[in-house]
Amino acid sequence: MTDDLSSIGLNEEQRELAAMVRDFAEQVVAPQAYEADRSHTLNLDVVRQMGELGLFGLPFSEEYGGQGGDYLALGLAIEGLARVDQSIAITLEAGVSLGAMPIYRFGTEEQKQEYLPSLLAAENLAGFGLTEPEAGSDAGATRTTARLEGGEWVIDGSKQFITNSGTAITRFVTVTAVTGVTDGRKEISTIIVPNGTPGFTVEPAYDKVGWNASDTHPLTFQGVRVPEGNLLGERGRGFKNFLSILDEGRIAIAALATGAAEGCLEAAVDYAKKRTIFGSALSTRQNAQFTLARMRARVHTARLAWHHAARLRDAGLPFAEEAAIAKLVSGDAAMDNARDATQIFGGNGFMNEYPVGRHYRDSKILEIGEGTTEVQLLVIARKLGLAG
Which of 214, 257, 265, 326 could form a disulfide with 334 if both were Cys (CB 3.0 to 4.6 A apart)? Predict the structure, then answer.
């Protein structure tokens, strides 16, 4: 069913990684997915096993406990997991792209030595607090503030939709905050806030439409004090630094969406072959065949898009536009394939026990999170010289 991995330029090590994750997803992740979704529970034993396989350390250097791989390798792992469980896939994506990567990219050596080993082993998770009630796509509208007082940052404000922020193994969140104003422009910095710090409250988890087994909370900060040394990166460069993290994250989300689209395709093909209607298999009906063929084309196109963006990123070449295209194309593919697969399944597609029903609920966020579809179109339009 899947593309011949060798035909799209993967080396032997990458093919082995993809096959290993696929096997793990089918044997370990898939059997627990329905119950985890139903109970809104992130299975930390699965997270632990992912850590043992080295998945959280894929794009990091061995110096800090990583696998010495790249973003393409990370994408292969995320895609393989998302075929069967998007909640587990986003736990990995956010744990790497939003939890560990900011430390790896912008942290001091002391911060890297302190935090990265446990994050890359999945002994701990971390979140990134960017989104606020009034600052979503317009992240520059950040209202959370941080001021220096007696060698400490004093933080006040709130964040929402923060992944991996409230698990039993969450160690910290990195938050964006306004640390000053220059010529009427906000100076936004990023600060590490350990869980359990007085005044830092992880609010009850959201009751979401999808990704129910993913850990997501709103956060509040009331006079939270952390050491001045908890500043991550240069003061005033927090927003710019985050944008670069976001570009990378879009590649990972595109890989996740591709996996979701493929999971829907595989389930729909299998069901169509087994389902008898008016005396013959549904798969013999031309309208079903055409639907499945379009689903296949979406998976193939989405995979090519994110692979291309990942290779550009790993080669040190500009990739922001390609990442936006990959996110746009793959997000559409996931949502369209989820809708079509549900239709193929008929009434059974409306039952949560079938994976296509879960994909249908899960996939909508792929057109919203990590930059909405409209934001991706804006990025692409700007590259065309169209935006003012």
Answer: 257
